[in-house]
Write a structure and sequence with these properties.
alpha/beta, Rossmann fold, 5 strands, 48% helix, UspA
């Protein structure tokens, strides 16, 4: 089984990792776990006139690894193999695209505990993933 866990460093994402770890006893074989962090694209317009693409890429990598580290530590702690990827774009669309590319069987996504007004009006990333994905999505509160 291939499981994708989108992570952003939040408590919700950590709960999603914990859920997968706690679900290991249910599975016949250890799953193939994919961690994904999607960074919002920052470089638009004239930004590239002042900041090099290498600097922007370093920023994406730094921020992505900061978000991925807690999940990696949890999986390392239980000896569960995983791969990780950092992409740039719109989170929900990036998650669904990566899930399709990796042909995952399940997406386990954490929900945030506090909703903002904009997320109540426009929907959360988790909601959008659930609507766009062609595979089952488990929402962890």
């Amino acid at each position: 089984m291939k499981i994708l866990i989108p992570v952003d460093g939040s408590e919700g994402a950590n709960r999603a990792v914990d859920y997968v770890i706690n679900s290991l006893s249910w599975l016949k074989d250890a799953p193939q776990v994919f961690l994904l962090n999607v960074q919002w694209k920052l470089a638009t317009g004239n930004v590239k006139l002042f900041i090099s693409q290498d600097t922007i890429n370093d920023y994406y990598r730094e921020q992505g690894m900061e978000a991925l580290t807690p999940a990696c530590q949890k999986l390392d702690g239980v000896g569960l193999a995983y791969s990780y990827h950092i992409s740039v774009g719109t989170p929900a669309e990036g998650i669904v695209q990566y899930a399709q590319e990796q042909q995952v069987d399940l997406i386990v996504v954490g929900a945030r505990g506090h909703e903002t007004l904009s997320s109540l009006l426009l929907g959360t990333v988790a909601d959008k993933v659930a609507k766009l994905a062609s595979v089952p999505v488990v929402l962890i509160k």
